[in-house]
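Final paragraph of the annual report: two paired records, presented back to back.
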Amino acid sequence: MALNAPHAGSWNIFGIPLPDLGITEVFAQDNLTDQGGSNLLNTNTNTNNNTNTNNNTNTNKNTNTNNNTNTNKNTNTNNNTNTNKNTNTNNNTNTGTPSGTYNFNIADFPNYTGWDPTAAQQDWIAKGRPAPGGSSGSSGPTPEQIEQERIRNQLSSAWDSYFSNLDQQFNGLDTQAGNMNQIVENSYNQGISDINAEQANNLGDLATSSRKNEENQVKSLADIADNIRNLFRSGNIYLGARGAGDSSAANQYSYATAKLGSKQRGSVLEQTRSIENDIEDRKAKLNNLVTQEMSKIKTERDNNVLQTAQWLASAQNELRQMRANGELQKGQSLAQLSQNLLDQARERLIAEDTRAKNRQDALLTWAMNNATTINQLKSNLSQIGQMNVTNPTYEKLSGSPTIDAQGNMTTNFYGGAGSTKEDKNALQTYLGNLWINQK
């Protein structure tokens, strides 16, 4: 087996090369040349550092953070030193909201279940746009964030209480409107009942007055007939005693008394007829007044019912609008950590409740005024129905024929409704002449 000649090294003495026994490589393994010799002065060193860095950012609804670093160090060592360093670094980061490109979706956040979408989005913005289903990247909330969250929770609870009160008030509107209409109906029905009762009572009083007037007429006519009969009897007795009981004088005397009696009866009938006309006028006036007042009360009732319906529709619309505004204001309030909007919403809710109470108070006032009006109407109806029916006025006839010393007959009649002095004198003269002619 033949030996190979030693490799000429890089060492020399006075220009004479020395054999390479590998000693230099022992001392400088890290500085080997590609020829296998040593390079103690680092004059021939090739170093390649190739670094490729790829940063790819993908944004979606889920946060995926992948930090993949690949480092390849390939070192080839021979007599010459060749070092290659290739480093590939891939940083792929998926963050929910790094640059505002994420569009808020309430479905990605279970903690916003049941929230109004607008209010939820504003709350999400106020909390620093946290990533869906994960943290915002911080190690934990700061004390300031904890305090803000406490205030936010208090405001959210206060808003929930406000909405509960608003819903309760809205649900009670129909009941309030029903109570208002009941006030109107009760007042109306009571008023109509009182008017009808008063009308019936006063019509009854007028009927009683009419009956009493008729009774007075009958009684007066009977009294007149009795008076004439007694007068006729007394006159005939007197004439009979003088021997003229069957004479024409007796007939004429009878005629005269009958004529005076007819005038009295006519006067009584005229008076009772006047009273009856007054009664009928009162009936007509009473019925007309009742009709007018009933129509007036009904109109007021209808107007109140209509106004209540208008109030109900207005209140419902107002509370619906207040709830819609409240949903937006809640988000703003939570974002701003301010109670001003909540206080303003509460004031409007109280104002709406006050408006409902004022409406009901107005109806109660109307009902009381209506009752006062009805009582005054009843008094007016009573004045119409109350009537003092008087007896017809007349005076009883009195007197009888008399004969003076010369044998002349005179007849003096006293009283007698409807008779005149001239009538009496004429009759008296007529009867006297009759007596003279009978002598």
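The closing record of the year follows.
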Amino acid sequence: MMMAASVSKIFMHSDSKAILCLCHDIHMLEIRRMLLEHFGYRVFPANSAEDAKHVAENKCPDMLLMDNSDPAVDYERLAQEVKNICPDVITVVLSPYYRVYRNGSIGSIDRFVVKDDGPDALMEQIGELFSGDPKPKLRPM
């Protein structure tokens, strides 16, 4: 709980940033929406790749945050399609694959964040990306 309070103080200034949040699980989508809004972000929820593209066309968010739990979605392709619509969008994938990806980038995806690291780590990564910190390289595990 102590960590959440300190992260909250650092990133509460973020109300001008908009995040398109994609998750096929409507309950997780709502939890992420509440978390992101708590930290001052505007959130556009989407529960399918098609919804995400539609939102991108109409809102052009600052970030696309994708949960990669839906095997029907090609996340790198979706990231590229959204970047074609909104060239400056930052793309982030929440991944359960700790050993494969660790806060690095591949192709059209700017950052992979490991789900098990929790909401504080996610908010820290989002804050770093919005602050313009350079993308870390994938680290071998």
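Strands lie at 18-22, 42-46, 63-67, 90-95, 111-114. This concludes the annual technical report; the extension proposal builds directly on these records.
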